[in-house]
């Protein structure tokens, strides 16, 4: 047999997607595993999602990541959806098997791993969450699985917020409260973990801040952001100024990617090497 020049294709569909750095960690992971995989960063507009999902089969791709704004919409184009992803109503990873599309969600698992790696306890804790979109759903379900006691959801659109509250009450034992986000929000004093799951601060809008009273952030709190920006988001900078411990979205990105790569390749990627690649790319110390 001659040499094969064919590569196994995976990647990410998003809009906007230019600044998504997953390709950096994917390249390192696949090289380290010694497998001929290529990770494509593809701009897919919402109106083209259906065609893009069909193209996965046409191009004989192994799978794809979905990012903003596709994680909920993609469900209607899948043949199979994992149980926890069904509860979340959101999928961030699709793999292709025998020409059929399987949906999973590794976002929440990646987030929990980041907290665990930072030594943050979740069991019995109160979490205050900004946002109720796809990432929020994944994180909320995994927080419940990890034993969080109470969750406050703060969201601009009432419909999305109360829908998530109902979903969690139906499927988990966590106490859930919804607050409509219509003015500068005060973080409940007894909050243990504050997490931003909105797209506020995502590149190119790096100066954007969530409309919260930053002085309600206390030094005992852990403040997390899902935005994988470097340098840190304005929210994390404000939290650091007030002495709170922070966990950024880069670690979550690595940890969810390890889970997705396992679904596509059947192999476990080296998170440490992926972390080093990302740190080198940004010239920073990445905690994952
Ligand atoms: P969705 O579009 O599903 O949800 C967006 C959420 O943000 C909604 O709750 C929306 O509120 C809220 N929101 C957006 N802009 C504002 C604003 N100006 N003020 C108040 N609320 C706002 O997006 P996803 O959940 O898929 O993604 C959210 C972010 O998470 C993205 O930036 C993505 O990069 C990041 N992410 C990072 C990961 C990582 O590994 N680090 C993994 C997954 C996601 P409303 O309902 O009112 O519209």
Could you explain how this protein is built, in words?
The structure is a single chain. This protein is of the alpha/beta class. It has 2 domains: 8-105 and 251-282, Leucine Dehydrogenase, chain A, domain 1 (Rossmann fold), CATH 3.40.50; 108-248, Rossmann fold (3-Layer(aba) Sandwich). Helix content is 35%, strand content 20%. The chain has a 6-stranded mixed beta sheet, sandwiched between helices. Strands 9-8-7-10-11-12 form a 6-stranded parallel beta sheet, with helices on both faces. Helix 6 (158-171) links the parallel strand 8 and strand 9 (175-180). The model has no long low-confidence stretch (mean pLDDT 95). It binds NADPH dihydro-nicotinamide-adenine-dinucleotide phosphate (NDP). NADPH dihydro-nicotinamide-adenine-dinucleotide phosphate binds at residues 67-69, 71, 107, 110, 131-136, 155-157, 160, 181, 197-200, 202, 226-228, 249, 252-253, 256. NADPH dihydro-nicotinamide-adenine-dinucleotide phosphate binds next to helix 4, helix 5 and helix 8.
